[in-house]
Amino acid sequence: MREVIELCADCDTCRTLMEKDCVFFPELYRLSDREKEEEIPVTEAELRELVELCTLCGLCPCPRVPEDLVKAKNGYVQKEGTPISTRLMIDVPRLARLCCTFPRLSKALTKNKAMSTLLRKVTRTNPARQFPTVTEPDFFQWAKKKGLTNRLPGKRNVTYFAGCTAGYLFPEVARATVEVLERNGETVYVPPQQCCGMPHLVEGDFDGSLQRAGLNMESLLESAKTGDNLVCSCPTCGYFMKVLLKERAYFSDDYQGSIGAGENEIRVPDPSSGNNQFRIFKKSAYKDILKDDGCFSALDPMSRIGLADALCDAGEYLAHLHAEGRLDTFFNTINERMVYYAPCHQREQKIGTPYLDLLALIPGLSLESLEETDCCGMGGNFGFKTHFHEKSLAIGKPLMLKIRQHAPQAIITDCLSCRLQFNHALPYPVFHPMEILARAYRNAERGGNIS
Question: Which 3 state secondary structure label does DSSP give 161?
Fold first, then answer.
């Protein structure tokens, strides 16, 4: 953390760049300025609190900062352990299984005032926040009943990674994704899958994140080897597996050997210059800096790169089908005014906004796109935390004001964490783009409804 403070104070770029959408950098600069101007050292307690303010949103321009913050978070976990409140909040699959096994207990905990107060105290959840409801069947139970968890031999499938939030808290989103894919002639396969690992990484539970990432990578790459297309509908899962997981993997000896880098070269892909273009660094000068020593270096670098390259955001995948003339564009009319918000983790995948073009194909739908510089402030489950709740709402306030000015009939966003924030702060219904596309397909003149 000391290294981060000194690095950021020396650079100063994020003092104004991240002032609006982040609570970490303003506090960092406040502490740094105080230390320089008033000669009051930053205390250990202040460093600890500072670490807690980073949600790994991906918006900061320097990759060094989040890497060091993850190490700092993990250092505190190694020293202090993971609090039970954190373990409860980040393990959505276990929480869902508990609620479904004991439905009366679940209802009592969320509806009974005394029990709800106890639960909030244990989980350190702000009293103003409403717990998401876990209902049966969850998406994975539904998928198993439909036979989607069995690969069809001789078929090229779309392997679908749903993620925990769509899998357990908003299964209607995952079902809509399957519906849209099947409408377009795709055979959907739902493989064995864990939480992507992002919630654990954000909280410093590095071992938990690494374990889940490894298991998912093995399962998904097994599908990719059979020729399946890999699709993900959650931008946070996508950001984790497509961006964070492969960070620094290009510096590995395995990758450098695979592209035939020279003895004194480190070649790094440069997509801005075109396919198969590289930036070249002298190994003698950069070998101690450009190396695969990040959070996930224990996992095979070629597998990390392979998964990142194979995985496709669901909107991105449909956009590819449309470009190839294979997308079913026979949509029913939806005469409503809606706004679309592209979440932070989708933006950081650098895939543009494919859902905007897809939703524009729906007759009658009036759609406004919100500015891409705004953040909802939720930060995964951080908005539920007592110490982060007000900060979360403060970050999201500019975005909420813009949405209120539009006064839409509904909000569309592909991030279900943003959906929880919108549900908390605004009176408008919120949908995933896949839900709107599925709705537009239903009852159309050709094909009928796909159930």
Answer: strand
Q: Judge residue 350's burial from the number of C-beta atoms within 10 Å of its C-beta, 0-12 exposed, 13-18 middle, 19 or more buried.
A: exposed
Q: What span, in angstroms and rounded, lies between the C-alpha atoms of 307 and 12?
A: 35
* Through-space distance between the first and last CA atoms of the chain, rounded to whole angstroms: 51
Instruction: For tokens 């408008």, name the residue.
Output: 428
Q: State the residue for tokens 């524009």.
A: 360
Tokens of 440: 């537009």
- Say which residues have a Cβ less than 8 Å from residue 143's Cβ, sequence separation at least 6: 149, 174, 178, 190
The 10s digit of each residue's pLDDT in 228-284 is: 999 999 999 999 999 999 989 999 999 999 999 999 999 999 887 777 899 999 999
What distance in Å separates the CA atoms of residue 39 and residue 416, rounded to the nearest whole number?
44
Is residue 33 within 8 A of residue 91, CB to CB? The reply is: no
Parallel, antiparallel, or unpaired for β 311-313 and 265-269? unpaired
Determine which helix (DSSP H) or strand (DSSP E) holds 229, and give its type and residue range: strand 229-232
Q: Is the pTM of this model over 0.85?
A: yes
CB proximity list for 104: less than 8 A, separation 6 or greater: none
Task: Please provide the size of the chain in residues.
Answer: 451
- The CA distance from 87 to 153, in Å, is 39
Q: Which two tokens stand for residue 298?
A: 């224990």
Distance CA 441, CA 451 (A): 11
Any residues with CB less than 8 A from the CB of 294 and at least 6 apart, and which?
A: 67, 247, 248
User: pLDDT (tens digit, 9 = 90+) per residue, 57-90?
Assistant: 888 888 788 888 989 999 998 998 887 777 777 7
In angstroms, rounded to a whole number, what is the distance separating the alpha carbons of residues 451 and 449?
6
